[in-house]
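Extended Data, panel c. Modelled sequence:
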Amino acid sequence: VQVAESGGGSVQSGGSLILSCTVSGLPTCPFSMVWYLQAPGKEREYVATVNSGNTPSYGASVRGRCTISRNRARNIVDLQMNNLHPVDTGVYFCNVNDGAYWGEGSQVTVSS
């Protein structure tokens, strides 16, 4: 099983990015795909997820600034992040099937 995050980069405060998580190698569709952020020196924190019914859920720190979506095959989850702040800086990880699989992360750096 492979979990690959992409789309990170460096932006200025107020900018936008789209992160993408792609899962391959699973015999069935993943039942959960969740984004987490690990900011420098901090614990990994929940960012967003979308359930099998396509209902999104967001962490308090990004609610109102992010949109999460899942493709029809349910193996790709995109996270649109708008109005980024320096506190959004860190490595964004994709977690699949309740912790069974993790990607290597995608670095996002927001400068003021």
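The mean pLDDT is 95. This feature is highlighted in the accompanying rendering.
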